[in-house]
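User: Before I run my own analysis I want an independent prediction to cross-check against. Here's the chain; please return only the structure tokens and, at the end, one sentence I can use as a sanity check.
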Amino acid sequence: VEAMTMADRIVLMDDGRIRQIGAPMALYRDPDDLMVAGFLGAPSMNMIAGQITDAVFAAGGVHLPADVGGYDGPATLGVRPEGLSLTPVPGGPELAARVSHVEQLGAETILVAASEVSAFPPLRLRLSDGLARPVNGSAITIHINPSAALFFDAAGKRLRRTS
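Assistant: Structure tokens:
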């Protein structure tokens, strides 16, 4: 948190190796790998294991366009909590889930929800003020914003969009 709020540039290191250097928000929005993506942000990035085939990411019935330069193989979808919503997003897939935790923070609320797809980890959503506030145990539909989706290859390296 201190680095994100006070620094002009961050050097993110792991096991003595530089992973990425840049402005705090540049690293947050455009991480080079899963380590950087997971390290920055609170709550942390949602990560869903799946497969990219023919420019489509698929996991547990969820399909997202993944035009990432011809990569086919195991992949991880990364999406920040603000990239998920309770309102439909054009072109975005939806996922049935049940709220397991609600954290009211004043102007925003953090939801944790368990997907009906058992292979998915619990998902974290950041809701802005003024949106409906589900309660623990309530059924919700999570919508994934395709423009907020980041993809990583089997080694954890970021796959960049080609279009």
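Sanity check: The helical segments are 2-6, 24-29, 34-39.
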